[in-house]
């Protein structure tokens, strides 16, 4: 019996040793996760700062960049007739004064819509025959719910009378968005997949749509609307189904908001 007690005592020590080592591993893992999170936030802030301080691309640069991205992503070459229809007037050139600062989006929109900006972008009443419910004048398209909300903060001063529509899947049910789109909407912001779904079920209208703002902001991994694999494909499906023809007919303008890589040096390849 005497020999059994030390064994139990040594086993207890071993168990205690294990119980001491395991929490330290957990603490280290938590610290590592915390450091990774801080690094991610730091990179995100760095990317945002670079985006905001970059010089907006001219209309011709946006045109060249967009056409090349469209042809490359879809494996097609636009016809000469299409290339004649898609020209510099189809793209909104942003003010150099405000750059890509998200909080200056409201000023950019006022400039883009000219004297009619207040009537088109701010008023909240439906007007039969002129203003259909659920049909925004401006649609922001980005890679995530978080970025969609950031863009809407930039036009908050213009959405006091008419609330903007949030068109993404995170924490938002389709049914809730359908109800929201029964009212007047001047600004809408969302991700390609949810935007397309709401158009498909005829909840989101396009009768008033004058501009789509494509967010070129890159995430911590360097992905953007045109490079994040699944989102990129969803965007081009949305564009081809609902926006391309409107652009050709001159009923829609595009604004590339954020840095457009190699926009200056790229030439249209057709």
TrEMBL record:
GO cellular component, one term: nucleus
Protein name: PROTEIN CMSS1
Region (Disordered): 1-57
Domain of life: Eukaryota
InterPro entries, A to Z: Cms1, P-loop_NTPase
Biased composition (Basic residues): 11-28
Phylogenetic placement of the source organism: Eukaryota, Viridiplantae, Streptophyta, Embryophyta, Tracheophyta
Listed Gene3D superfamilies: P-loop containing nucleotide triphosphate hydrolases
Pfam families hit by this protein: CMS1 (PF14617)
Sequence intervals crossing the membrane: none
């Amino acid at each position: 019996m005497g020999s059994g007690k030390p064994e139990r005592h040594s086993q207890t020590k071993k168990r205690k040793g294990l119980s001491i080592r395991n929490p330290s591993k957990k603490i280290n893992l938590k610290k590592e996760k915390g450091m990774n999170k801080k690094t991610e936030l730091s990179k995100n802030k760095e990317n945002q700062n670079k985006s905001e301080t970059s010089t907006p691309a001219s209309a011709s640069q946006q045109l060249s960049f967009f056409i090349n991205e469209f042809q490359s992503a879809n494996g097609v070459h636009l016809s000469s007739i299409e290339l004649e229809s898609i020209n510099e007037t189809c793209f909104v050139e942003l003010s150099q004064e405000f750059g890509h600062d998200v909080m200056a989006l409201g000023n950019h929109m006022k400039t883009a819509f000219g004297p009619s900006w207040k009537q088109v972008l701010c008023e909240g009443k439906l007007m039969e025959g002129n203003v259909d419910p659920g049909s925004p004048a401006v649609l922001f398209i980005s890679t995530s719910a978080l970025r969609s909300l950031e863009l809407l903060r930039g036009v908050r001063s213009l959405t006091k009378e008419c609330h903007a529509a949030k068109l993404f899947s995170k924490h938002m049910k389709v049914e809730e968005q359908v109800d929201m789109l029964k009212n007047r909407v001047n600004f809408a912001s969302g991700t390609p997949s949810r935007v397309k779904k709401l158009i498909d079920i005829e909840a989101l209208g396009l009768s008033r749509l004058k501009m789509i703002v494509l967010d070129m902001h890159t995430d911590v991994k360097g992905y953007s609307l045109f490079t994040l694999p699944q989102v990129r494909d969803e965007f081009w499906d949305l564009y081809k189904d609902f926006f391309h023809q409107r652009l050709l007919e001159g009923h829609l303008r595009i604004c590339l908001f954020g840095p457009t890589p190699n926009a200056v040096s790229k030439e249209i390849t057709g």
